[in-house]
Amino acid sequence: MQASVSTTSLPFAAAVAAAREGEVTREEACALIRAREGAEFDSLLAAAAALRNQLRGRRISYSKKVFIPLTNLCRDYCGYCTFRKDPGQPGARTMMPDEVLAVAEAGARMGCKEALFSLGDRPEAAFPEMREALGRLGHATTLSYLAQMCERVLNETGLLPHANPGLMGRKDLEALRRFSPSMGLMLESTSDRLIGPGQPHDNAPDKAPRLRLKTIAEAGRQRIPFTTGILIGIGETLDERVDALLAIRDLHQRNGHIQEVIIQNFRAKPDILMRDHPEPGLADLARTIAVARLVLREISVQAPPNLSDETYPFLIQAGLNDWGGISPLTRDFINPEKPWPQIDALADRTAAAGFELTERLSVYPDYIFRDGFLEPDLAAKVRAMADTAGFATV
Ligand code: SF4
Fold first, then answer.
1. Which domain holds residue 84?
2. Quick one: the chain helix, strand, coil %, rounded to 5?
3. Dist. CA 330–CA 273, nearest whole Å
4. Number of domains in the chain
């Protein structure tokens, strides 16, 4: 990771000019993210939107999904998390196989094509109750149970699993890639400061940046189409935001596997440790999306519309090209107070901004016909669900 340096000396105009030409340096990206309100801010967004139009066209994609919170037990205690539970806490839950399949089947009936498995990180390492539950299911680890459920959902419902279970080792990725054609792990931040005392990742051993970078790098070695992202507004500096984006770019340049980068904005909730922490505003989110576009260039840049209330169409102007997974069936278990927009409304508001809302699969079009990324059996299944451009057939 690069050391933090003072970055204000480079004129903003020079940084925008460099971004229009090609790959930006850290110094340029740090100047870009400091765009001042007014002409600089407008110029930043215009450069990002132009690059998006050039590289990704006039479509804004989304994936029709069901959300399967396989377990909300987690050994970490992130300061912003409302999802995790300890055993015995109200709402603590590990889904049984028939419950998982029932949700996936209901989603399939509603036209969903993705089963997003999101879950707590290694609960069996902290809780004997989870070890016992897994033992009754015939597994020693949550990730082994997850792999079996991905296999069953894929084979019994036709939905494409997208596994998002926290840190994964080489063998976990090898097991999961057979049934989960794409996977994800939020990098969130590369700042080691944020794991220090009193910081959001103070009591979250799985949020050490070097461990998350290791998982994402291993996914690259295994050529797994991979989703990652950053979480903004949790106490990181602007330079640290840039460093996280550069780390993602670096991993992608080595292995070409980053299909999508999510720019997620922190939202305060009454039941979290960070309940009084200020939320990043819309302009802060927009400037980060714009810099992500200019740093990451052809990689898909996503922001969830439900985390920006009714103002989300503005983010199109900042250069995103994807709204992420939208569920017609299940709520956003990570932000339960923020319902997803209806897909028809999302299509209308995207069209009003001059773009066509287009359904994609959990695997991005860029990876569906490329050799070496998907297991052969899985590639055949995915391709059968895609049109010639790699988007979902509806
Ligand atoms: S954000 Fe993820 S890792 Fe952190 S506490 Fe919540 S479920 Fe666990």
1. 64-384
2. 45, 15, 40
3. 26
4. 1
For 97-126, give the DSSP string: HHHHHHHHHHHHHTT--EEEEE--S-GGGT
Cβ atoms of 216 and 187 within 8 Å: the answer is yes
Confirm whether 23 is domain-assigned: no
Instruction: Say if 210 falls within a structural domain.
Output: yes
* Substitution site in 71, 80, 84, 189 for ligand 1 pocket (most atoms within 8 Å of beta carbon): 84
Place of tokens 């939020």: 186
* 249 CB-contact burial (10 Å; exposed 0-12 / middle 13-18 / buried 19+): buried
Torsion over CA: 305, 307, 311, 316 (sign): negative
pTM for this predicted structure: 0.95
Indicate if the pLDDT at residue 1 is higher than 70: no
Nearest CA to ligand 1 atom 7: 120
CA 142 – CA 165 distance, rounded (Å): 9
CATH number (domain holding residue 161): 3.20.20.70
Burial of 51 by CB count in 10 Å (0-12 exposed, 13-18 middle, 19+ buried)?
A: buried
Q: Tens digit of pLDDT for each residue in 39-61?
A: 999 999 999 999 999 999 999 99
Quick check: CB of 291 below 6 Å from ligand 1?
no
Any atom of ligand 1 within 6 Å of the Cβ of 204: yes
Task: Work out which ligand 1 atom sits closest to the CA atom of 201.
Answer: 4
Residue 232 covered by a domain: yes
Distance (Å, whole) CA 233 – CA 191: 13
